[in-house]
Amino acid sequence: MRILNNPFELRSKNALLISESGEKKGELEMSEIFRLAHESGLNVALVSQNSNPPIVKLIDWGKYQYEKAKNEKKARARSKALEMKEIRLSPRINEHDFEFKRRRAEKFLAKGHALKLSLRLKGRENQFVDQAIKVIVEFSRQLAALSKIDQTPKRMGGAIVSILRPKSKQ
User: Fold this and answer.
1) Which of 36, 37, 70, 147 suits a disulfide with 164, CB 3.0-4.6 Å?
2) For residue 77, is it within any domain?
């Protein structure tokens, strides 16, 4: 949407006018449209130039810009909430550490964050990949009530990675 500054910016003499409230006023001459805009203290915005006749709307440009910025800010805030958090596990993790990390993961999922489970294999641990996968599968199974598996455990170099997403609240 762009603002028209004078009636001669469009090639067409007439345009379909939409009022600020959204009701169609009909096809009017551009000079009449600008006169109405001037009287009401509004701007003329071009909605669609490709239609025949072109469509214009009376709007308060400052209010339009403010609402647009406000909606973009809300969208950014929502997308930031969907941050990826990482929990690092070990193939020889002890029971207390396992429970501590599980509780931490539950908090992340409750806040709506995605969760990346990673398990780094070092040295001789690379021979026992099946044991490492069992640790990640058990961790995922215990979080099944709060999450769904987005990526099953997959080996990536010297690590095994799995991604969990929070279940949608319905």
Assistant:
1) 147
2) no
Residue pair 164/143 in contact by the 8 Å Cβ criterion = yes
The pTM assigned to this predicted structure is 0.53
6's enclosing H/E stretch is none
Query: What was the pLDDT predicted at 81?
Result: 57
Mean pLDDT of 158-169: 86
List helix spans (H) across the chain. Answer: 30-40, 61-81, 95-110, 129-142
β-pair partners for 162: 117
Given the structure tokens 């215990």, which residue do they identify?
142
pLDDT given at position 170: 47
Q: Which domain holds residue 125?
A: 82-166
Residue 146, pLDDT > 70, answer yes
121 in the same domain as 159? yes
